[in-house]
Structures are given as C-alpha cells and as structure tokens.
Amino acid sequence: MPIRIYALAKELDIDSKELVEICNRAGVTGKGSALASLTDDELDKVKSYISGGGKKQERKSKATGESKEAAIKQPIRDERPAPTGRPKEIRTIRTGNAPLAVHGRSSRPAEPDVEELPAEEPTAEETTAQAPVAEAPTSEAPTSDTPTSDTPVEEAPVAEKPAKPVADEPAEQPVAAEAPKEAKKSADQDASDSDFTPMRRGDYIAPGGPGRNKVRVLGGGRSSDQGDAGKRDSNKPKTTAPTTRVKFAAMPTPATPPTSQAKKSGEPAPQKPIMQLPKEAIQGAKAGQKAPLEEFTKQHEKKRKDKERRPVEIGSTDSDDSGGTGDRRRTKSKGLAGMAGGREARAAGRRTKRPGEMDSDLGNRMRRRPRSRTTRKGVNTAAPRKSAVELELPCSIRDFSEATGVATVKILRTLMTLGTMANINTMIDTETGEYLAAEHGVEINLKDALSIEDEVITKIEEIEDDPDTLQERPPVVTFLGHVDHGKTSLMDKIIDKNVVSGEAGGITQHIRAYIVDKDDKQIAFVDTPGHEAFTAMRARGANVTDIAVLIIAADDGIMPQTEEAISHAQAAEVPIIVALNKIDLPGANPDKVMQQLSQHGLLPTEWGGDVEVVKTSAISGEGIDSLLETILLTAELHEYTANPDRPAVGVCLESEQESDRGVLAKVIVKNGTLRVGDIVVCGSSHGRVKAMYDTLNPRKRLTEATTSTPVSIAGLDQAPGAGDKFYVLDDIAQAREIATLRADRSRSESLGTHTVKVSFDEFQKRREEGTLGNNEAAATLNIIVRADTRGSIEALQKEMEKLDHPEVKVRTLQASVGAVSVADVTLADASDAVIIAFNVIPDEAARSLADDNGIEIRRYNIIYKATEELKALLEGRLKPEERINELGRALVQRVFVVSRLGSIAGCRVLGGTIERGCRIRVNRDGRTIGDYPLESLKREKDDAKEVREGYECGMKLQGFNDIKDGDILEAYKVEEIARTLD
Ligand SMILES: Nc1nc2c(ncn2[C@@H]2O[C@H](COP(=O)(O)OP(=O)(O)OP(=O)(O)O)[C@@H](O)[C@H]2O)c(=O)[nH]1
C-alpha cells in the first residue's frame, strides 16, 4: 500500500525533505515532494537504504557537523544504486536531426524540489533507443513533436536526460525556430496552466540580468550559464551531485545614470575634456621648473599691477580688444604654463570687457585688432579728390589741399621737387596753382577772390566824382635824375632850405615832399633819391606825379639813371620838364644834352618839340623861377582837378617810427581831404589819424590836408610801406580786418619759402671748402633788415636783388622799421641769418642775446656800402675790410653850450672806453641820427687820451652841435683788416 513520503518521514521521525533526498539517493526517483507516494517496493527500497547505512551515514554526517555542501561534494555516482525498474520518463524528443535543447529550466519560478540527477545517464544512443518509450502517452507529457523547452521539470522529472544527447548540439534557438506552431501553442498552454512564464524568442536574459538570480542549478549545480560547459563536459564524470538547493548571491545591478545627466534629445554627445598639458608646461617640467602655476600667478600679479599703472593703448596687443591674447602670447614667450596662461587670458578678457561690448571669442578679437591698428595710423583727413573745383588764387597750400582734395604732403613734395621748401601756410600764386593742379590731375577753375578788401576798397576806387565838385588842385612834381645832378640842391633852392649837408654820404636816402607857394599857387614837390638803389621809390614817386622834372647836369649829360627816369616818366604818361642844371659850370654843354634828349624822344621846344627845357643853377638860383613858372603853366594846360569834399585817398611816400609820436607816415593826398580823426587803412597798417604835421616844418600841426598836399600823419599801428595806398574808411573794424588780412598774406609770403641757410662765416667756410654750389639749390644767405625808414629797407632789398651770384643768393627774411629787437635776434638764431642794421642800433636785450648766441649784427649807414660789401662777399672780391672796432658807449647827462666852441656834451661812460680821435655815433630814441668825428675829449678841464667806464667826461663833436640830454654816444674806430675769403 502506497505511503506518502511525509507520512513515512513522520513514521521515521525525519524531515520530509530529508526523506525526499534519501529517496533519491536510494534510487527512488521521481519523488519531488513530500506528498509523493511510495509504493511498497519503493518503501522497501528506502527502508533498506536507511537500514543499510544510508541512514546512518546521513545521521553521522549530521552528527559530525558536515555540511550539506560536503555531502553534495560526495560522489553521488558511487553511492547511487544501480538503476532499476522501468526507465525514467524522457520528455525531450528529438525531431529528426534537429538538436534539442532544454528550455525553461532556468525560468521555472519555484522548482520545488530539485532532485539529484540520475546516477547513470543514458548515452545518446540509449536516449535514441528509448525514444519510443517517450512516445508513450502520459497525462502530462507533451506530444512527441512538442518542444519541451517550456515543460516544467515537475512534470518531467527526468527532464535533464534528454538534454544529454543534445549537449553537443550547437544552439538551442534553431530548435525553437523550427518548432511547429502547434507545438508552441501547446507549450504556451501548458505554461499557462502551470503558472510559468513561457520563454519566447527574443527573450534574452543578459548575463547578470534580472533573471540571473533566479537561475537554479539542477543536479550538478549547472546553471544556464554553465549549461554549455556542462554539455561540453557531458562525457566527463560528474564531480558534484548537489542534493540541496543552491542559492547564489544576486548579481550587482549596474548603476543607472542620474536623470539629470540623461542625454536630452538633440543635444550633442558630451565630449571628454582634453586633459593635456601644453608643450611649455612639459618643457618647464623637464627643465626642472617647479610649480608653474605658482610662478605664473606671481607673474600674473605683477602684470596686473603693471597694467593698472599703464594706460590702455587702443589697438595694442595689450589692449582690451586683444583680450587675453596678448597675455597668453607673453606667457608663452616666458615658458610658463599654457593652461594657466589661458585662464589668465580669459580672466583678463573678462576684466577688460566693457559694458555693451560683445563677448566675442578670441578670433573675433583678433579680427578686430587690425581695425584698431588702422585707426592708430591715422585717417586721411584730406577731402576726397574732386574732379573740378573753383579756386581763388593766390591761396595757401592748406586751402588748395582742402579745395582740391590733394593731400598737403603730396603738394609739399611736389613743390620740393621744384626746389621750393614750403609749408601748409605758404601762399601759392596762380602759376604755381595751375602747375599743382596739372601735376595732381585736378581741374581747377580760377575765380577772383572776393574779400572785404574788394568790397570796401574797390568800392572806394570806383567812385566817380561829380564834375561839379571838382576843383583845381596843385600839381605834384617829381624830380628825377641821375646821382649828383643836383636834385636835392635844386629843391633846396626852391624851398630855401639846405638839407644836402645832413644826408649821410651826401646821397638822398629819403623821399622828401613839400608844397610851395608860387604866385598865389601851390606846387607839390616829391624828391626821390637819385641813387639807383632807390629806383623803386622813384618809380612810386612817379606814380603820384603829375609832372616829372628831369634833372640833367649840363656838364654830364644823360646818364643811365637818367634814361631810367625817362622811362618811368614816359610810362606814367606824365608831362616831362627838363632842368639843365649846373648851367653855371664851365663844362656845361646844353646843346649836347638837348641832342641826347632828342635821341631819347624828348625833343626840346627850342628845337620844335614839346619838351620844355629850363636852364637852372642850384647854386646861383638861375632859372628857378622860370622852372616854377613852367610847372604852373604845364599844370594849367593839363587842368589838374580833384574833389576836396570826399574822403581822402592817397599814397604813402615813406614812414618811420619815432619814440614820442609813434609811427609817422609821410603821405600825399591824391584826392579828397584828409582830416584828423579819419580812419585810415594803409597797406597792412591801420588806425585813426591822431595828428598831422607839415612836411616842411615837422612840428607844425595841421588839421587837414587837401589834395596834393604831402603831410606826415600819426596814429597808425605800424609803419606802412612806401607806395602803399591809403583810404579813409567809416569803420575801424573794417580797417583792422583789411589790415590784418594783408599782414597775414605778407607774412606767409615772406616766410613761405625757405632754402639752405648760410651766414657770412658759413658762407666763407663753404667757399674755402669749395662746397658752395654743390647742392642743387643754391645756398642762400638769409638776412634780417632793420632800418630807420621803409625807404631804406626797400633800397637795400632792391640792391640785394641785384646780387645775383651763381653760388649764393640773398633772401630777406624780415625787414622792418625800428631798432634791432630780441625777436630779430631770435629769428636770426633760428635761421642762421645775418642782421643788417641800417641807421639803427640794437637795444640792450638784443645786443646781449646776440653776443651770447653769436648772432652777427652788421651796421651800416650808407646803402651802397652795405650792398657793395655783400656783393664783394658774394663775388669773393672782398677788399680789405673796414672793420668797426667798438670802443664804448656814453650817456649824455648834460649839454654845455659855449658860445665860441659850440655844444659840449657832459657824459658818463656806460661801457668800454672813449678814446681820442675816434668817431662817435649819436643815437637818439633808438635811432642813429648822426656820425661825427670826436673833436675833443676832456676829463674835467684837461684833455684826455681815453676815458673808461664809470667816469665822466666832456665830448665835443665835429660839425654837430644839436646834441641833447639822453643821447647815447657810441665810440668806435675803423680798422682795415684784410679779408681772408679767398
Ligand atoms: N656848381 C653847381 N653845383 C651843384 C648844382 N646843383 C648841385 N650841385 C652840387 O652837386 C652836388 C650834388 O648835389 P645833390 O643835390 O646832392 O644832387 P642829387 O641829385 O640830389 O644827388 P642824390 O642825392 O644822389 O639824388 C652837390 O655838391 C651840390 O652842391 C649846381 O647847379 N651848380
């Protein structure tokens, strides 16, 4: 009678599970649980096993504390009894040659009892042989063609058996793939019935996956992982025979990435940071450099401090725009850690970032840098080149550049190629402007400049007087002629004043103008210098002239300057009256002179012509009245008229500056009436007429000057030039503006050009070296002229223009009236110029500065001496030089007038010494008024050989008694020194 295992276990007083195992070991297989029943045979077999020692051994193992594992390690095969009874059920059936595999064992959820494998497993041949047995229908066994992969082990106790024959089969999946659908459905149905999840295709349990911990090893501890190995080792004897369930530790679950780090859709794959030291760092490390970051930090701090002290330069590599690039580059150059340098550079970039500035990358900063460099180089401010422009010439180079768009640099360069050194303020005339335009491809349309000068002055000149307002006016007569033909003497005879002896060198150097009365009529005389140096002044005199009186010495005849005077008179289209002077001389030959006159187109009336020839003698006065009558008659014939009621216009004959009266301009009114208080503009000077003086009596004040009247006016701001026209304006501002405009123009013209400079000494040095003329541009001797009058200046300039030397030229940098000033010395020092002082002396400050800087001040009182000296110097034909040896200066403190001796000057020697026999220059108000020999020198009452500085003395000058208190007497001696020029 069958007995259940749990009942037997109770009977035997052992654990039911233990009894199940015993049954298995006793060869009673198929008893998976305590509910299984044992037949009588099986009961006997189990009991015999237990009684035979099996039980004892089991119990002994327990008593000795052997673990179940030890028992499992025990070879089962040896203890297992030989198989008996009918063969075990085989549920796995091969279909054809298809390999079979056991599926589902690992997925069986709770295999209740895993019994030990049969001790002797059938071979493949045996399995095959037993296949028909397997076909025996059982209630639970599937059909023969049903795959057994999902068959529960409980229903197939010998499920392991069929696995053996297919152990060597390569794969299990092909079996499943080839399984008929009907079988699969059946298997699914079975699995559903047995609460098992059927294994399906595609169900893949990764190693270590969730199902791994559920793997149970059946018999021999073979897991699914070990299945193949077990299959491969199927021919080997089993070394293990587990009889109990083996529990494996759960496989570690791989950590799931945090949700925050989950890759977002569309986001690029994260890149691994490149942790690579730069080459500099590696090199530094190899070189034994320690702690590059620390070293870099130190240098960075140093740089930061330097940068804070140093202003940021636009466009520089250290600038903000360059950001950290420059720092990084510098860091690299010093071999510091590149990574630290990059960090520092980025930090620098953040520091230098300005509000609103784009946070551009390095490339952008690099691209911006060239633009900043371009800005630093400057922008061409010249206007765009214009195709056709209207231009007023003359204009400055700056104006030309702005109008045409041609850069001033190019213009200056072009002028330089022409040998002209200019600057932007240099005025260019029409010819130069046209050349520049053609040279630079600019089309210019010249237009007349319209300035306030035109608006005001032209308007005045265009005024036509009403014939009813015109009245007869005195004729203006000019004496022209050759040197020493008696012009001055003749005029003196007319005005009964002897001025010839007062002229230095006996040559007329100033324009004199007087108005004389004759037979209730007036005649205005303008005496121009006879020397050729005064040609320009003479020419200007002719311009204001109504009648020209040509003075010809009867004993000398027509001379070159006489011919020139004739030309000027004829060019002025004025009537000419010839005065055959010095008729009293024995050598006078009137016929010869008249013949010469005829040859020059001046046919005397005596010979049927229209030229009045009057025989005169300035000495005897012969023919003077006849000359005056002839002048008045000629004036009547020509009906000289003017409008005395209009604002005056006229010409400046000459000007000078006096200490007490300021600028005195000698002018002659050509039309209208000049009055005190009138606003006058004359050349580049202007002012209101403060006072007017008679030319014959310089201290006699006048209130007005009618037409043709020469007069000296005071009130102008500066000395106008001889020949400058004057106009009376209504507005002083207009006068000032016009004068300023003219002054600027004159200044730019005089200073606009500049060439190689050379002083006297430098010139001589170059001649000695033979270097003169080697330059393309001729060497230029710059001079600064200071003179007592404008006439002297123009005479000097005119003479110097004639000093045309192939190797050197003379250029006047500045010419003005007055004493030599500090400004003159400064200009001479800056331009290596020589100062020509004509009839003036330098003031104390200028003298001291000139001595300190070695500026040469050459003083002259005779024009031709100055010009001849310059000429001799230029031509290298210098004669023994009359060198002036300055001795000393004395101040006149008191003048003693002795009736039989004349004026005695009581003086104190201010400097140097006063020596007997020297010459004395008399200076008054900054001007040299005379040069006389020292007649006597006394210390108290005794004659003295010399008087030194600080002592008082008395001096008597030969031929000069008009000495006054405050005069400065300069003592000098003339020494002849041979020139070493050649
Ligand atoms: N015998 C004689 N001598 C005269 C006569 N007129 C002038 N002289 C002399 O000639 C010399 C020159 O006279 P100036 O009056 O200075 O001659 P100038 O033309 O004025 O000379 P510049 O000043 O150079 O223009 C003087 O010594 C005069 O005395 C004259 O009619 N008869």
Automatic annotation (TrEMBL):
Residues 60-92, 179-188 have a biased composition (Basic and acidic residues). One of its GO terms (molecular function) is translation initiation factor activity. Residues 112-124 have a biased composition (Acidic residues). It comes from the Bacteria. Pfam families: EF-G_D2 (PF22042), GTP_EFTU (PF00009), IF-2 (PF11987), IF2_N (PF04760). Residues 125-160 have a biased composition (Low complexity). It is found in: Cytoplasm. The keyword DNA-binding does not apply. SUPFAM superfamilies: Initiation factor IF2/eIF5b, domain 3 (SSF52156), P-loop containing nucleoside triphosphate hydrolases (SSF52540), Translation proteins (SSF50447). Residues 472-641 form the Tr-type G domain. Residues 475-623 are annotated as: G-domain. Keywords: Cytoplasm, GTP-binding, Initiation factor, Nucleotide-binding, Protein biosynthesis. GTP binds at residues 481-488, 527-531, 581-584. Gene3D superfamilies: 1.10.10.2480, P-loop containing nucleotide triphosphate hydrolases, Translation factors, Translation initiation factor IF- 2, domain 3. GO terms for cellular component: cytosol. Residues 365-376 have a biased composition (Basic residues). Residues 50-385 are annotated as: Disordered. HAMAP family: IF_2_B. Belongs to the TRAFAC class translation factor GTPase superfamily. Classic translation factor GTPase family. IF-2 subfamily. NCBIfam families: IF-2, small_GTP. One of the essential components for the initiation of protein synthesis. Protects formylmethionyl-tRNA from spontaneous hydrolysis and promotes its binding to the 30S ribosomal subunits. Also involved in the hydrolysis of GTP during the formation of the 70S ribosomal complex. This is Translation initiation factor IF-2. The gene is infB.
